[in-house]
Design a protein that fits this description.
alpha/beta; two-stranded parallel sheet; 12 helices
């Protein structure tokens, strides 16, 4: 990219302003300052890992709304993250090609930022990327780099089901990632969202798609495992609130919705919303694992054996845990939000309906 001499001066000034806000790794020195130049004169520069994912686009959008300069590390082609450009003012959303296996790339990605947010995660393993690589080793290395560079605020997104005793390898890796982050940077804020639903989710959309491509939708042991789904916008709001609120440093928040469902109740809701025949069938664990193994052979599997193990457990918020309410956020109910995007799966015309699924503009 070519810059004029004026452009170089502006870029240097922005970098210097961002660097002047760094105040050590205690995590308590960040203050959001807005100068007279307008919305984008804020003092925050945030590096967001995993910004191209489901949750990432919502987080970047909310950061852009109050004028943050956002650095988006990515791998692959820039086309996969170009949609994020319009989520901030001109020149405020910038991309950096990197590899999480390169310590030099990680250091360069967070250099000049005073906020680092890690949304990176992997729901299934491949020959190239394991849970250990993405969910454990990288967060630990990133936290160490943030501590060395004196980053003011580091926010790491884990999962509500994270536990070293979980039957799910994904959940165990998330728990180990939390431990590594806390050891390297005690001031880090940990966000543990429950199953996230939203327009691009991997839970409600998947239920409809699987039910129409398979003879039946499998529910392991009758779908008695409990979930507490949370809306993606609420999770993004919580992350941005943690950026602004210094008192969240060093704390762990469990982000869950207002209601607990069994997997059977979730599927019943989905089929009712799309007005389709409920073809759920309770299957024993062995049959579920066989189905999961078959789906795992696809290039981008929408279901794995490890996910089925996690669905068989209760992924709900504990009573004494900090949550959305402690951040001043009222979680939205799935019944009020999910039908808005599930209507596209209806077999009858979506323009003929007896309900209003579009919320009134505010």
């Amino acid at each position: 990219r070519r810059f004029t001499s004026k452009g170089v001066a502006v870029a240097t000034l922005l970098s210097a302003c961002a660097g002047s806000q760094q105040g050590g790794s205690s995590g308590m020195s960040l203050s959001v300052k807005t100068f007279s130049g307008g919305r984008s004169s804020t003092s925050i520069q945030a590096t967001v890992f995993g910004a191209t994912g489901f949750l990432g686009r919502y987080v970047v959008s909310k950061l852009g709304q109050f004028g943050c300069r956002v650095i988006v590390p990515y791998r692959g082609d820039e086309l996969y993250c170009r949609h994020l450009k319009v989520m901030g003012d001109l020149g405020q959303i910038n991309f950096h090609n990197m590899s999480i296996r390169s310590l030099k790339d990680i250091e360069h990605s967070v250099s000049g930022s005073n906020v680092v947010i890690n949304l990176l995660g992997k729901h299934f393993e491949t020959r190239r990327w394991s849970f250990q690589d993405v969910n454990v080793s990288f967060p630990s290395a990133l936290a160490e780099v943030c501590a060395e560079q004196g980053i003011d605020r580091f926010i790491h997104v884990s999962g509500l089901g994270a536990s070293v005793e979980s039957p799910s390898a994904w959940a165990r890796s998330k728990a180990l990632g939390e431990i590594g982050v806390k050891e390297a940077l005690p001031s880090a804020t940990i966000m543990r969202p429950a199953t996230i639903f939203g327009d691009e989710d991997r839970i409600l959309n998947r239920m409809v798609i699987m039910s129409r491509h398979l003879p039946f939708y499998p529910l392991v042991n009758g779908g008695q495992g409990k979930q507490q789904p949370v809306h993606v916008d609420d999770v993004a709001t919580a992350i941005v609130e943690a950026v602004k609120n210094q008192t969240t440093a060093g704390k762990t928040y469990s982000l869950a919705g207002p209601k607990i469902y069994t997997m059977k109740e979730l599927t019943d809701f989905v089929f009712e919303a799309v007005m389709d025949t409920n073809n759920c069938v309770s299957v024993p664990t062995s049959v579920g694992m066989a189905i999961g193994f078959g789906v795992e052979q696809l290039p981008n599997p929408f279901l794995t054996r490890d996910e089925l193990r996690l669905q068989a457990t209760d992924v709900v918020m504990g009573e004494a845990e900090l949550g959305l309410g402690d951040l001043g956020i009222t979680p939205g109910a799935m019944e009020d939000l999910a039908e808005r995007y599930l209507f596209m799966y209806k077999k009858q015309s979506p323009f003929i309906d007896d309900k209003n699924y579009v919320r009134t503009p505010q």
